[in-house]
Amino acid sequence: MSAPAPLVTATELNAKLRELFGADMHGLTSDMISEMEYGMVLTTMEVSPKQLRPGKIISGPTVFAACDAALFYACLSVYGLDMMMLTSDMQIRFLRPAKGTRLHARGRILSVGSKLITGQVVAFTDDETKPVAVAQGSCVPPKKNTDS
Amino acid sequence: MSAPAPLVTATELNAKLRELFGADMHGLTSDMISEMEYGMVLTTMEVSPKQLRPGKIISGPTVFAACDAALFYACLSVYGLDMMMLTSDMQIRFLRPAKGTRLHARGRILSVGSKLITGQVVAFTDDETKPVAVAQGSCVPPKKNTDS
Amino acid sequence: MSAPAPLVTATELNAKLRELFGADMHGLTSDMISEMEYGMVLTTMEVSPKQLRPGKIISGPTVFAACDAALFYACLSVYGLDMMMLTSDMQIRFLRPAKGTRLHARGRILSVGSKLITGQVVAFTDDETKPVAVAQGSCVPPKKNTDS
Amino acid sequence: MSAPAPLVTATELNAKLRELFGADMHGLTSDMISEMEYGMVLTTMEVSPKQLRPGKIISGPTVFAACDAALFYACLSVYGLDMMMLTSDMQIRFLRPAKGTRLHARGRILSVGSKLITGQVVAFTDDETKPVAVAQGSCVPPKKNTDS
User: Fold this and answer.
1) C134 to chain B, closest Cα gap in Å
2) Closest residue in chain D to residue C64, using alpha carbons only
3) pLDDT greater than 90 at residue A9
């Protein structure tokens, strides 16, 4: 990936998410996007006690929600702000128990087509080199394009 | 799959889930398991307004949570009640907008090994023949077995 | 799936495959499609000794090739004969050692969109109720459509 | 991943593959492993004309075979040389048409458990930064371990 500017900024997207969901979106904090480039986004989620499983492990669906959001936002960074973008599929692999109260997900776009945008996500708590999960998936852009 | 009795019943598992999570587990109702056989489970989730996206579509992570639970419970049906069972990976494919207030997930086990139990899930609202999502994944059983 | 006629027949597709690949396509026999309906196809592959692993197990990539072909042909059954259809992704899960000399794959379409056609495949040797693998994936149809 | 020595070297594994498969393993050349570290392997495949599709694109099952082999060998690098290692599942995403006559696959291990070893693969022809496919999957180690 070369590096044009992202087609939506972290500030714009955080504002849009607050407008749509208020302070609570699956327990995600309202200012959840901390880095955004063309084809890359980093999100941060404050984990609530309700999202923990026995042993204080962050639940699998919570980790999935973070990965799903990171892929979605990374797709917007190469397409522009359009909430009609749809996740078509995602595969998540859980690698380690997710211990901690703050969950990060870094999404990266691998290919951009008119019908499908594909990317990967790494989810981690304290140490990005020891991810708690990895995921890969695709989003289908809305129908605005005329050349597909 | 032939049909021995499930190694945990719906009544036992619903009681265990209430004990662990009270009435609220990702918004799942406490009596969420309506059918349970050896290798098959059917779950029902009352969807809350917070789990809806614009257009009154049930959010993707909510559908994932239902599929993840259905696979997990189906694994318990062939292994016995042990909450240390872990999902290792799951792939979900979103097929149609998930409209409705009640979300069902039917999990079926495809193979049972000492290291890995594998299954598929169909998620639907009104019509099981028009699923909103399908998923497939594996769980790793706890270490109690001595022959693995 | 209701049941209109398939948009390409087994006879037409087998003829096309012979024209393109002759008698050998990854070791697939030339008349490999034995059943074809709208949204469903059954393929049969004669496994060659080169496709076996130690223990006379059919190799994983051979099983993948059968699943990939079955998904592709099932997509053609709902779209029409167009070899520019592309597989975008596939997840395969190996369930049992694939013993035998004849490998079948049954593909079924789950949803048809203008940008993505999604389906599942069951691969088996002797007994369809004891599959050696299951797979799910999507194909991207060619760009002929004007409304996407 | 820190960096102990790989539990099998490229030389040892290439010798083993030649012994088992001769010069031909799905068209893979006999000296296919060019780099091997603990948890990382790079493979190279000379693509034969039979593995090309119309438009001189390397076929999807050929790319899958390369990814499957790279994951398998990467698992051996952290486990030791044991051909009873089994791939349990793999998801492959095709990103770009695979043009070229030489196909590389770089496999990296993400987590090592006694029941499951998990990794990702990047497949490319000329340019590793523009992969033709990515894959992620798991292998189940043989039963020799006593602590699982």
Assistant:
1) 9
2) D61
3) yes
* Number of CB pairs, chain A paired with chain B, less than 8 A apart: 51
Predicted structure pTM score: 0.93
pLDDT at B144 (0 to 100)? 60
The contacts of residue C11 (CB under 8 Å, 6+ apart) are: none
| CA B145 vs CA B79, B107, B113, B114, D87: distances in Å | 11, 24, 11, 7, 22
CATH of the domain at C75: 3.10.129.10
Domain presence at residue D75: yes
Element (H, E) at D21: helix D10-21
Among C residues 105-124, those touching chain B with beta carbons less than 8 Å apart: 110-111, 118, 120
**Overall number of domains in chain A:** 1
Residues in A touching B61 (Cβ below 8 Å):
26, 61, 64-65, 68
DSSP states of A52-120: EETTTEEPHHHHHHHHHHHHHHHHHHHH-S-TT-EEEEEEEEE-S--BSSEEEEEEEEEEE-SS-EEEE
Tell me how far apart the alpha carbons of residues D22 and D29 are, in angstroms, rounded to a whole number: 9
Query: Best interface-test mutation with A: which of D67, D111, D122, D124 has the largest number of A CBs within 10 A?
Result: D111
- Domain assignment present for residue C78? The answer is yes
Q: Which residues in chain A are closer than 8 Å to C115, comparing Cβ atoms?
A: 115-116, 140, 148
What ipTM did this prediction achieve?
0.91
Calculate how close chain D gets to A111, using CA atoms only, in Å.
6
DSSP state of A140: E
Range of the domain at C102: 10-140
Residue C148 near chain B (CB below 8 Å)? no
Backbone phi and psi for residue A46, each to the nearest 5 degrees, phi listed first? -85, 120
How far are the Cα atoms of B26, B109, B127, C94 from residue B136, in angstroms, in the given order? 21, 10, 20, 12
Residue C28 DSSP class? B
Q: Is C81 exposed, middle or buried (0-12, 13-18, 19+ CB in 10 A)?
A: middle
Cα angle B13, B7, B30; round to 5: 10
Q: Is residue A46, in this structure, part of any structural domain at all?
A: yes
**pLDDT, tens digit (0-9, with 9 covering 90-100), for D86-127:** 999 999 999 999 999 899 999 999 999 999 999 999 999 999
Helix (H) or strand (E) holding C70: helix C60-79
Q: Contact partners of D by the rule of 3+ C-beta pairs under 8 A?
A: A, B, C
B54 found inside a domain: yes
**Which has the closest alpha carbon to C134: C144, C145, C142, C122?**
C122
SS3 of residue D20 by DSSP: helix
Question: CB–CB of C61 and D65 under 8 A?
Answer: yes
Strands (E), chain B: 33-37, 40-46, 52-53, 57-58, 86-94, 102-112, 117-124, 133-140
